[in-house]
Amino acid sequence: MTDTTSAPSPDVTFDTLHNPTFLQACMRQATPHTPVWLMRQAGRYLPEYVATRATAGSFMGLATNRDYATEVTLQPLERYPLDAAILFSDILTVPDAMGLGLSFAQGEGPRFAHPIKTEADVAKLQVPDMAKLQYVFDAVSSIRKALTVDGKGRVPLIGFSGSPWTLACYMVEGKGSDDYRLVKTMLYSRPDLMHKMLAINADSVAAYLNAQIDAGAQAVMIFDSWGGVLADGAFQQFSLAYTARVLAQLKRVGADGKIVPRLVFTKGGGLWLQDMKALDCEVLGLDWTVNLAKARALVGGEENGPGKALQGNIDPNVLFAPPAAIEQEVIKVLDSFGKPYGGSGTGPTHIFNLGHGISQYTPPEHVAALVSAVHAHSKRLRM
Questions:
Q1: C-alpha–C-alpha distance, residues 182 and 168, integer Å
Q2: Which of 22, 248, 275, 379 shows the greatest Cβ crowding within 10 Å of its Cβ?
Q3: What is the pTM of this model?
Q4: pLDDT digits (tens, 9 = 90+) for 184-203
Q5: What is d(CA 38, CA 367) in angstroms, rounded to the nearest whole number?
Q6: Active site amino acids
Q7: pLDDT of 2 strictly over 60
Q8: CATH code for the domain of 354
Q9: Structural domains in the chain (count)
Q10: Which of these, 124, 63, 90, 98, lies nearest to 204 by C-alpha position?
Q11: In a domain, 6, yes or no
Q12: pLDDT value for 304
């Protein structure tokens, strides 16, 4: 495991950015408006993304090419005044580097050629050589360079990975699943194998995110996309514990000496906010089933006291409504969080996002309406 105890004290000012609002909100510092970015913001809803993917020939051709990955990461920032960029990649790059053989068929989700089925399969797993993922780190460095204007970054760059449990779901099922029958069969019948896989996954994710930080990622996010499918008790044992194992190994300081906030998003995790409050991270992401006011009271912390920044949590399907309706739903979410923190020091803060990834069928002009509404109403709340 990486020793983070001897790291230098991180700088929590963000003077190397033209727009530092996202990082400031991560650190529970006051901001002039509520920052907004969208999960899966570089994706199939944008015609320019579709065109670039066609040129690349495939999803993996896009993701493994530094220049293409840089291009599509920047595309939503050219359209919308978003407050953060997120690396264009996939959550399953790590098991692919383990030798499971990741592929994407047109119109289908990810698929592994060599899923984990037996004790012998688990025994062969090991933390992959990070050199196999160099294309990701090259993309991070390239995106950081492309974001630089007049010596400063336009907005911060977020790196990410799937959580150990979410990776295990795909690794055992071999693809997405409706019932998680195979992975839960292993969990309940051979918990020893599951724990062994999750430990390897956790150490792999930590090494992967640390390499992204070294390459220039200014925040890192763990997507526990399938944590919410677990039973109470199983979530704490098989998901939360291994997310905590990742967080314990992460570097706290980037190459520029600035603190690197850590975000954790568990889809369906609202039931366990009290448990997640103890995670060693700065931000908890919420899906649309969670009431922001209640979450703020539970984990948001008081002024100058400990607590988590909150990220979320509008229903992505709101984006299919007319722009006027989108604006009203945005206002509801912002009002639900309550009056933004406005003092010196730290206090409860909010990062606006969707409750899950944006749909490929979303009209691009509706995203513009959402971003505009977030900025406008959040500024009104600060008057």
A1: 11
A2: 22
A3: 0.95
A4: 999 999 999 999 999 999 99
A5: 9
A6: 40, 44, 53, 90, 170
A7: no
A8: 3.20.20.210
A9: 1
A10: 98
A11: no
A12: 67
